[in-house]
Amino acid sequence: MKLVKVAAAVVNQTPLDWQGNRDRILGAIEEANLSEASILCLPELCITGYGCEDAFLSADVQRTALMVLQEIAPQTRDMFVTLGLPMTYRGVLFNVVAILSDGEIVGFVPKQNLAGDGIHYEPRWFKPWPVGLRASVEIDGREYPFGDLVFRIDDALIGLEICEDAWVADRPGSRQARIGVDIILNPSASHFAFGKHEIRQRFVLEGSRAFHASYVYANLLGNEAGRAIYDGDAMIATGGRMLAVGPRLSFHSYLVTTAVIDLDLTRMYRARSDAYRPDYQGSQQPLVQVPFVLPDIEPSPARYERAPWETSRDLKQEEFTRAVSLALYDYLRKSHSGGFVVSLSGGADSAATALLCSLAMRMAAEELGFGALKDSLSHISAVKNSSTVEQLIAAILDCVYQATRNSGETTLSAARQVAEAIHAKFHHFHVDKIVELYTELGAKALGRPLTWEQDDIALQNIQARTRAPSVWLLANLRGSLLLSTSNRSEAAVGYATMDGDTSGGLCPIAGIDKAFLRQWLSWMETTGPSGFGPTPALNAINVQAPTAELRPQESGQTDEADLMPYDLLDAIERAAIRDKRSPLESYRQMLALFPQYDDQQLAAWIERFFKLWSRNQWKRERYAPSFHLDDENLDPKTWCRFPILSGGFRRELAEMWEAVRQDGEGKG
User: Fold this and answer.
1) Quick one: which residues bind deamido-NAD(+) (predicted)?
2) What CATH number is given to the structural domain containing 639?
3) Could you say which of 112, 339, 550, 578 would form a disulfide bridge with 460 (CB–CB 3.0 to 4.6 Å)?
4) 619 is in an annotated binding site
5) Which residues are catalytic?
6) What is the maximum span of the chain, computed from C-alpha positions, in angstroms?
7) How far apart are CA 39 and CA 24, in angstroms?
């Protein structure tokens, strides 16, 4: 047997945090070395951070990244290590993986396929490297191979697929397989999305099987730059069999996953495969000889275990809870904020936001230990005197209920119960007198009293806007981060007051729809995440019909009466925005999905959606940053672009109504 111990390291990096990024990389290298791994794969662009945006174009950033690489290189003795950084070749910038071996840089491999869809903008900064091209770069008077390379260490051949390279049909691994590569390393920066882990797992397993090789995959971890969340996937497979999977969505700053692979076994699979066709003569894949001797090691049984939550039937709820909690924890410590402030209305959205803040601290304490959690938040003075996680939550999380004459005891009681259950500070502000002052100013300007019959929207909005200054004041006094609480369904139709309930520096739930949020809150009430259990106090939220409480109580205002049923709204949004269907196509689809609704009513709701979507793009442009959770995101800065001014689908809506008329005549 020819055995090799390999490792995949995930690291929680921050763009341009040179010392912190270096230290986490060094920590991962040391841990892999202590575990006696010979080959270590670290993530894509882990030296700079993946989310540097236009800072990648800075010559100083490129120089500093190379300096950090040179600082790290001596610490790789007795190992073969990959590290990602931006590098130029002949004045052009590339997304590159540096190869280090036994304390020396031995070569550089640029990425061949760039991610330019969705939240990725790699082609803005980098160029794709041509297949098969080999060149060299000079650093401090020394030449290094640079290009589409395969490395030989001892008698093992090692190739690379860099993130997107593995997601395309013509994968570099397929060419590498034809010259007998034994190990493929995949340094990645693949953002979290619901269900994406299963896709990655499939291409890792299929790559190891089809390429007759061992495959090592390492992703970034955590909320790196503010919007994208990385789940820290680490996988090691051989011959179509998974050997090791690291924990996902961890609160640790780095983790190392190891496995022992058998080169003779994968070579045997290759030898007996009728489908394998070697291409030793025709292949243009250059080999870089690396003076490195793989040590003899003893066999070690594979222990492939998944965390209990990974096999839950409620996986989406678990992933949502853990991804957003990790993102909030990272945002808090990386922004050096003094805590969180949430305007807790007694409704679903603000309750979900506050609950996730509390869970972020509970989950971090459970995984890191309470002492380590306190150390990671040492910039918050109020945390120092906390002796329990409950006291720590109270020190950093302020929930504010802001009452007007249209607020009810039901929502006040619900808000108080939730705040107490999650151990947050609860504040009850009365802002009705301030609302009165503003309405008096408006009446004076118009020369008449303001009435609900004439001034409905203005009277609703001034209440929401009046609540913003007081929570901003509290956030400023605390040095805390004010969280806005709009969900994706509201963003789609502009059902939010700008400079009111949209006020905040971060909107944690803007990437998720209202229907799922309500399901999640019900799940949190009765079940909750594995290891943490339910929050029964949420019953006070879940029994209510969602309402903005901005009209007088006797009006019976509800969100769905103002808009449409949320499950329908979300279905229309997916059809119209995610799938780019016309109003008529959306109408036909909704007829099949929602037969309980009248044709005319369905068409009216679809018209309402398209009109509200078109006129409210300016609102989406002004939303606070949110977390990316799936391919239904509406964030115009990273995912879903739409003109602020447009024709508003007038022609298309007319076509839909003509079809409704003809359908009605046909039924008659």
Assistant:
1) 461, 490, 619
2) 1.10.10
3) 550
4) yes
5) 44, 111, 163
6) 92
7) 18
